[in-house]
């Protein structure tokens, strides 16, 4: 029942036809970890979903084994809050950014700082590796996205994407695209292959934008309490998801691993899950009443979700989830 | 003790008397005792020579000061066989020790001895140490009172300690039951100062407490307390008073370190501390044996520094610093004459250089005079003032000009001459002189200028309408247009990442000048590029003349987004040049291999004509568009079905490994087909459409919609306009899919109605594009080559789109079931309300199912 391996398209299609079968959602709270690093600014699964990273208010990053609920390592070196972190595809490096306007390139094993990239004029909100983990992209309050080269010793960025008119709120990088969302109400997609920047005007400040797994849709979450699913190529709206509360904070959204449900944190202490096609709320998961669930990350291949609220992170899974044997 | 039997001496003797020394015997013994120093040998119990002297190797060692054993030094051989592998031998200090070292007084005695616990030397902990120190101090003050107590230490612990130890007490711990350590109090002050982003936490304020490592409920022994040492007060001083420390008087308190100090070549100080050699590893560290006692440790002067005022009745030697020039104390030749006042002044004053001599003709009141003069001129209202009275005319050739002439030349008629006031010194300078000054000012700047006095140019009037400091004028060499041009060229070359940016600049400068300029530019460009990138990101112009883009955004995109008409209105694309290095790192071929710029170059028009024209919005650039059309044809030829024309070909290519994830199905997968729900919605939508029809006329938002439509329609082809409208219908219906608000639902319907109005007068496409091109910032040259292949595409894809347009939702266009006829389409358009309802029925259907439905519908007709 629980898909441990990558679901092929065939599997998915059989799922679709089987209407009686309920799609499993990460709605069961399994456990909670108190990260003890102040407010958890962001929680992220690593590339393969075996580890997770939390960024704290206390200038540290913590690496966890979510299955064993074990703290593996603590990374210190930032001067202010850490706001985002990303793991490289070989799990050997981390990139993190924060209020100290620097992007730090870490060695995972030793916890040493490999490089420190300075250049942003403001707080850096988001950071991502490219697919080969040779470039770090960082989006900042100074309304620019900077691409930093991990391979050379150059201190200046390879390129500055300063098309946004306001701060960059989120960033996603695929093999040839860079997706940015900005407070100026636009979602921008830089296609390196085509050499074109596509922008979609949403209207209100966009706090998070995510590609669907197939790369054909963009899920964007905006400050008008609405999530929108846009077609990548035409910019048409394929779906609209409302009901949650998002008008103040940077709240992240996501699609589950099967791409059939939309998830988002909310300012009322719930996690909302919508059906992607119908746009109806399938589930409201209560986490912590009247608190803001600002960050959530979804496992790339399993029905797992981690949400961050204040100083704790919450692990969710579906009802069929069996904890691994080697727990504890 | 025995008294001598002899009564020679009257006094009692104690002890045994020394034997009388025989003269005969003394000789050899005297000889023996007279062994010279170098022959005196100390031997150990076996008769081996004990000491060798400092320079021959120290103590006796080995076998009679040879190496090893009686046989001599036996080298150990390395032996290793398969059965008996040699182990790696690790040497220990014991291997190199002699018997002596293992003896009673050696380094590693092997004999039994009392352990440190039972000797008086046992280790004391810090607190005991402190206590003892206090006692000692006290003792030194009260000589000898408790000296015995200090010297005589108990051999074993007293019974109290023994009992405590048996109860589990350890030295260094306090007494009492174990306790749970209390957590540190939160530092509320520091927490409040901290900046906190996002949501505030209750427990977020102690970021660096070490307590988190300690498990809860872990018990600790209480902390040891320092026992109060009750000391005997045996003096009459006040409480807390202590006398002078006698030890302080005896010792030099601050020993000067014996560090060797040196300076490296670079000038940084080096100093070596500690003892370099001479003290063995096992020896106790000596006092600083290399310490040098210097005279500075001693008081050489009798307390002059300490109490300089106290001169003890002596004539105070005046100012030690100036002692040189007054012979304070007589030495040498005149020892008897003390403290004689100096007869001559000392020469130690620094040499004073007098100020430069003022020339005789210098007039410090010249300026005043000048002013007075000007006043006089003003008062007299003189019309003709000879400039030569103020400044002598330098050029005899020049004709003298009157003020009127000057006025005429300067075209300065605005202010009447009588009221004109002398504003600056330049008013008194003759016109030709001013001309020359102007020329001189421009001379170093203007390279083409020839310093010919005869050519008197008209001075260019300053344009006072312009502000003095413009943002654009913040450029280097703004006073030298030629150089500025060269600099701009240079900057452009840098932006294009040319290897030798200066080489592109053409100028008629000499080699040296060029070199000089290149250097200058290189430095300048660093500063200016930095400024432009960093500063410009922080500031924005207060009033930016609105470009087409922002107008479009304000007038079209924003209302469109508000009305949830996402799509062409809100979607925009701009040519963007990625950095070649970024492409390399992303493993993507550079889309503009010959491009010289990086980043967004030119914005395409507010509306993407091409996006409307062609299905592929990705096909913006000529080559990309080419690829797109190629791919489309490829897929067609292979499968016979046009798959997903709206999807740019780049996607299909880009991620082959994800495979199935790339087709659109999973996005729309899921419980789309629920018959019961469908029925419900049918009825719902019927109502909706009725209400929207009613609302149609009342809507206040009609004008902007018309605007969209007009722009929208103008960029359409004749044939595709109908099709587009159909798509709009689709938009509307699918929007309704999502919407819950009734008011919102009404809007798309309105849109359609207004669109029909606009379409009354269709405009031919070609013209339109040209018009658009004129309006657009992009030159028509660019848009037209793009346009051609697109049109082809359009033709190819038309039937597909028509099939797709019947579809209930946006997304990808479905593969054609059968070629649809245009006639049907036009009929559809002609009867909007009826068709609408029909269409609405089909809203929520899955693709394949939808096909079936469509067939049925066709049959109905």
Give descriptors for this structure.
heterodimer, A: 328 residues, mainly beta, 4-stranded antiparallel beta sheet, 28 strands, 48% strand, globular, B: 861 residues, mainly alpha, two-stranded antiparallel sheet, 28 helices, 39% helix
Write the layout of secondary structure elements.
The complex is a heterodimer of chains A (328) and B (861).
Chain A: H1 9-17, E1 28-34, E2 40-45, E3 52-56, E4 60-65, E5 70-76, E6 82-87, E7 93-98, E8 102-107, E9 113-118, E10 124-129, E11 135-140, E12 145-149, E13 159-161, E14 168-173, E15 177-182, E16 186-191, E17 196-201, E18 206-211, E19 217-222, E20 226-231, E21 237-242, E22 253-255, E23 261-264, E24 270-275, E25 281-286, E26 295-298, E27 304-309, E28 312-317
Antiparallel strand pairs in A: 1-28, 2-3, 3-4, 4-5, 6-7, 7-8, 8-9, 10-11, 11-12, 12-13, 14-15, 15-16, 16-17, 18-19, 19-20, 20-21, 22-23, 23-24, 24-25, 26-27, 27-28
Chain B: H1 23-33, H2 99-102, H3 126-141, H4 147-151, H5 159-166, E1 179-180, H6 188-193, E2 219-220, H7 246-250, E3 260-263, E4 269-272, H8 366-380, H9 387-390, H10 403-410, H11 431-442, H12 481-495, H13 511-538, H14 548-562, E5 571-577, H15 580-586, E6 599-600, H16 609-613, H17 622-639, H18 649-654, H19 665-668, H20 675-698, H21 702-714, H22 718-738, H23 742-758, H24 765-775, H25 780-805, H26 822-830, H27 832-841, H28 847-860
Antiparallel strand pairs in B: 1-2, 3-4, 5-6
Helix pairs in contact in B: 17-25, 20-23, 20-27, 21-23, 22-23, 22-25
Oligomeric state as shown: heterodimer
- Rg result of chain A: 19 Å
Largest interface: A-B, 91 and 93 residues
- Which structural class should the secondary elements of chain B be placed in? mainly alpha
- Helicity range of the residues of chain B? 25-40%
What's the β-strand tally of chain B?
Answer: 6
Query: Order of helices and strands of chain A, N to C?
Result: HEEEEEEEEEEEEEEEEEEEEEEEEEEEE
Given as residue ranges, the uncertain stretches of chain B (5+ residues, pLDDT < 50) are 1-5, 186-194, 198-210, 253-257, 303-338, 384-396, 415-420, 445-473, 602-703, 714-861
Q: How do the strands line up in the largest sheet of chain A?
A: 1-28-27-26
Structural class of chain A: mainly beta
- Per DSSP E runs of 2 or more residues, the count of β-strands of chain A stands at 28
**Describe the biggest sheet of chain A?**
4 strands, antiparallel
User: What's the overall geometry of chain A?
Assistant: globular
**Overall mean pLDDT score of chain A?**
86
